[in-house]
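Handout, page 2. Input:
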Amino acid sequence: MVTITSDFDSGNIDVRDVTDASDINLEIKPDGAADFFQWFFFRVDGADRRPMTIRLKNAYRASYVDGWKNYQAVASYDRENWFRVATSFDGRALTINHRSEAETVYYAYFAPYPTSRYRAKIEQLKTTGRMAHEIVGKTIDGQDIDLFRVGNGGLQFWVIARQHPGETMGSWWIEGLLERLIDPENEAAASLCEKATLNIVPCMNLDGAKRGHLRTNAAGTDLNRAWRNASMEKSPEVYMVRERMRATGVDFFLDVHGDEAIPNNFLDSAQGIPSWNDRHQKLFNRYSARLLDISEDFQTKDGYPASAPGDANLDIANSYVAETWGCLSMTLEMPFKDAEVNPDPDHGWSPERCRKFAGEHLAVMAEIADQIR
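Output:
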């Protein structure tokens, strides 16, 4: 007998009909206090060697329907190693076809990064003694918001991830960055830490992550639309991080995300802010060009259209920070699908590739640190 559950950290699915393994019907649950939905993560028991057809029946109403085009879901037997499985979208349901090689199998929108793994990594980092750790405040659900600081330089570099909890590639990328920053043999890390102090918030939206949300926190707030008018009632995560930024200043800002529709890695600048000028553009071009030189996983052809002068949304972190501190400020977007640049049909864009990509960004940060002010 096949059974399905998502009653665990970061899980999300609503079971409709599981009586026939060849016609399993499920629905994705929306964020608790908002209508966003696309993230799914569930466990199937009793699946051993059984061909299954799993239909997510409400996929046509998901927040980003274009995200289903050429998309392949991920599966895992141990929640560590994730691989892609046959997936199709007919305009209504997203259908996963898979014959499991084990009694229990997990399926997800992207390789999950639950808060249990996050907490274990945080504790591990604290024991290294190579980073200063502080708690900037608590989420609505009472979880600690962690900030790590490393380096002795006068420049203030800020890196945040996971404002949108379903974009788990952000956590895998941050994990790769932190691993390199505590490595005494990493030359880029050593160079950057001489020039700058890095301020890293590994997970902005812990409540949404634990609840299995796509985009919002416990109050139903999209944190990346709350920077201009953050409040302790609806967006304490942004409010407290923003106040900490005001205490340090910001010379460089990178906000790490995932994009549902575009099948490539790309950077989005703050073009369109009222103060945008040639200096902003040159810094962004310099960073992008060096990353293109270094990384086989980066490209500059696909991305978001630039905002018209003065039309940038200052509720978004990237634009708010750039306008407030006049610094190089960017959003990094990584794909849920496989990247068309340097594809990997078995794993698609994956945790391993996220971690590697972080190391390439670190190398560029170290190179451009002397030029950003």
